[in-house]
Amino acid sequence: MGTTEQEVKRLEGNLERLKELYVEGWIRKSEYNRQSERYKKQLAEAKGRPESIAPNLSKHEQRLAKIDKAIDLVREGSLEEHRKVLDALIELVEEKDGQIERVTFREWTRGLLDE
C-alpha cells in the first residue's frame, strides 16, 4: 500500500471516528462540521495526489511529512497511536520516586526539538 493510499485510509477513518463522536454526543454539530470539512478537503487533496510524489521528496521534506502525520496522530489518534508517536520520538525516560527526571529524545529529533 502506497503512502497516498495509506493517507486516504487514515483520513477516511478520521471521518468515521468524527461521525461517531458527533452521534454519541461527544462533540457539537459546529465542531463536527468544522472538522469534517477539514478532513474532506485533505481527503480530496490526497485522492488527487499521485503515488509517485513521495519518492521525489527530499529527505528533509519526507521527515517533515512524517512529523505532520505524527502531529495529526497526537491530535486525533487513539491512545495506541499516541504511544507509537511517543515511542518514535523518545529514546529513554528516567524517573525517580515516581517523578520524571529526564527525557532523552531519539537522535533524529534532536535538531528539531532543540530550543
Question: Which keywords apply here?
Answer:
2 domains; single chain; alpha+beta; flat; 68% helix; 2 strands; 6 helices
Task: Describe what you observe in this structure.
The structure is a single chain. By secondary structure, this protein is an alpha+beta fold. It folds into two domains: 1-56; 58-115, no CATH class. The chain has six helices and two strands. The protein has a two-stranded antiparallel ribbon. A hairpin with a 2-residue loop joins strand 1 and strand 2 (99-105). The longest helix has 21 residues, at 3-23. The mean pLDDT is 78.
Kindly summarize this structure in a few lines:
By secondary structure, this protein is of the alpha+beta class. The protein has helices spanning about 5-25, 30-50, 55, 60-75, 80-90, 110-115, and strands spanning about 90-95, 100-105.
Topology record:
Elements: H1 3-23, H2 29-48, H3 53-56, H4 59-76, H5 79-89, E1 90-96, E2 99-105, H6 110-113
Antiparallel strand pairs: 1-2
Helix pairs in contact: 1-2
| Broad shape | flat
Number of helices: 6
Structural class: alpha+beta
- Number of separate domains: 2
Largest sheet geometry? 2 strands, antiparallel
- Secondary structure: number of strands: 2
Rg over CA atoms: 17 Å
Distance N terminus to C terminus?
37 Å
What series of H and E elements makes up the topology? HHHHHEEH
Residues in helix, %: 55-70%
